[in-house]
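=== RUN LOG ===
request id: a7f3
mode: sequence -> structure
chains: 1
length: 276
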Amino acid sequence: MTPTAALLSCAGRPVGRYTYRPASESRPYFHPVTTLGGVAVTEERPADHLHHLGTSVAVPDVAGHNFWGGRTFVRDQGPTVLDNHGVQRHVGWKLRDPDGFVEELSWEADDTELLREHRTVAVAELSDTAWVLDFSFSLTNRSGADLSIGSPATNGRPGAGYGGFFWRAPKETAEPAVFSGSGDGEEAVHGRIADWVAMTGDGWTLVFAGATEETRRDPWFVRSNSYPGVGSSLAATERLPVPAGATVVRRVVTVVADGRLDRATAAAYVRRAVTA
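=== RESULT ===
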């Protein structure tokens, strides 16, 4: 049987399962991802959003095609079920090791390749209780024509600028805390540009940071009230043009830690993670 998943290890312990040929999903994704202590920090197909798949690159609008899943937000109409879904197909490995991989993917819709992705993932130990997932992706327009990336926000739904690197955390009895270097709570971090954003739950903390200047210019999409999720927005308020042959590159590092980190510790880990 052809393998469909790759396992990542850090400090001799398994920390992530990457399903690269899903049986029924539209894109590869990480789940479960765990702390070094074994606490799960991702969720797959939760009841509130069945199309949320752990950690992945998900985009709701690539030239009108849905690479996010679920309904599509249509201007003046709202969330609508459309036959416009694309798929991210695993093309092959350039490198595959226990602590990371380099992968090629094809973003396809209507039997046409719109984007070719070069994805690089690596893990590194930061301490006895923390490790970092370094996730970069480059999207090259292979369609032969200019296209653009959008979001529900660019299609008329204010505040819903999601699309890009996205992490669905586990929903627990208590709402997770979210904070950045300068603010606390969803309202203080959602839709804003910040060097890093942290989310803490029951025995775990995730700290997300843009690791390139261009990535750091993308606002953060943050949810803690309705569900726990954090993403880096490619098209927060306006569409992102991708001319024919052009490439969009982003890199996000995520600190995965046991326990609840305070602001100073989160910032210190980010400084180490970006150079790890």
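=== NOTES ===
The longest strand covers residues 112-127.
The longest helix spans residues 263-275.
=== END ===
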